[in-house]
UniProtKB/TrEMBL annotation:
GO terms for molecular function: aminoacyltransferase activity. This is BioF2-like acetyltransferase domain-containing protein. Pfam families: Acetyltransf_6. GO terms for biological process: cell wall organization; peptidoglycan biosynthetic process; regulation of cell shape. Residues 174-300 form the BioF2-like acetyltransferase domain. Keywords: Acyltransferase, Cell shape, Cell wall biogenesis/degradation, Peptidoglycan synthesis, Transferase. Belongs to the FemABX family. PROSITE patterns: FEMABX.
Length: 326
């Protein structure tokens, strides 16, 4: 991500962006090469929002010195030949470390040229860039206006570490609670086909209403299942006690990374520390599948202190993005 002063002008002779120039398989391989990828830049996400929101994915490959160094999925919708909705969620993804400043500047200048601000065009950009003064200045330089003061925050968990290292890195209180959960007689059930998805979505929707928090729509999650389960990228784990489900979590895999998307606990599950049990076993299952990074699905220290404290207990690396722009 750019973090130097904005002084060097782009050398456009070595820079290019091509749109819709790669196959599905090539896009998946590029997402894997990006390492810490996110669900919103994955091919299944584009297919799911096409069905649920009629947003059409446009797939950019960013070239520098003759090779692809970055990718970005942009979602568009045109209505009545007048209205134009543009959504860029958590992109671009970079395939190499230490991408030069000129490449970052070139990308955002091209985005501005392709989608200039105008009446009846509704732009929403959530750049995959750390919240730094340098990055804010870069986006401002290309005419993007910050519309949300708080950037998206979450935690990355490095799953390339050995199991014993992951366990040692847990915060002491989280590890103690995990130890307790392993003595509560819980058993684990894996669902890779989605047979329990409707059950989980009904319970999580009730939680959203009671606790007044936002989350992905059931329709979007259902279509994500549709486009992921045949490739083994859908993972629902349930904690059972005496044969009854007392907790569940849902994760989606996207090439070499995964995202924790939905969770639910009954009161019995909370008493048995089922969420600790489920997340720990999810880490082990992801490692078996050669997943290297887990995005814990967002934190909010202001409005969801308990969830934030719980997720931080896993010992990952918190991050905050630069915010939303139009």
């Amino acid at each position: 991500m750019p973090d130097k002063a904005l002084t060097k002008a782009p050398n456009t002779n070595t820079l290019d962006i091509k749109w819709n120039d790669v196959s599905v398989r090539q896009w998946r391989n590029l997402v894997r090469k990006a390492g810490q990828s996110n669900l919103l830049q994955s091919w299944p996400y584009a297919q799911a929002v096409l069905v649920t929101e009629r947003l059409v994915g446009k797939f950019a490959t960013i070239y520098w010195q003759g090779r692809i160094v970055g990718i970005c999925q942009v979602l568009e919708q045109r209505l009545l030949g007048v209205f134009h909705k543009v959504r860029l969620y958590r992109g671009p993804l970079w395939l190499e470390p230490d991408i030069p400043q000129e490449v970052h500047e070139f990308f955002w200048s091209e985005i501005q040229k392709r989608y200039p601000s105008r009446p009846w065009r509704f732009r929403y950009f959530l750049p995959e860039m750390p919240d730094t003064e340098e990055n804010r200045a870069l986006l401002s330089k290309f005419g993007l206006n910050r519309i949300q003061t708080d950037g998206y925050s979450s935690i990355w968990l490095d799953l390339t570490q050995r199991e014993e290292v992951l366990r040692a890195n847990l915060k002491q209180n989280w590890r103690n609670t995990l130890n307790q959960s392993e003595k509560k007689g819980l058993s684990l059930e894996l669902d890779t086909e989605g047979k329990h998805l409707n059950w989980l979505l009904k319970l999580s929707e009730m939680d959203k209403i009671l606790k007044e928090f936002k989350g992905p729509s059931p329709a979007l999650v259902a279509h994500l299942k549709r486009f992921t389960k045949d490739r083994g990228e859908f993972l629902l784990l349930r904690a059972l006690h005496d044969g009854e489900a007392v907790g569940a979590i849902l994760l989606f895999l996207h090439e070499g990374s995964a995202t924790y998307l939905v969770g639910w606990n009954s009161q019995e599950g909370r008493d048995a520390r089922a969420h600790n049990y489920l997340l720990w076993n999810a880490l082990l299952e992801l490692k078996k599948r050669d997943i290297k990074w887990l995005d814990l699905g967002g934190i909010n220290p202001n409005d969801a202190k308990g969830v934030t404290f719980f997720k931080k207990g896993l010992g990952g690396t918190p991050f905050t993005l630069v915010g939303s722009y139009n």
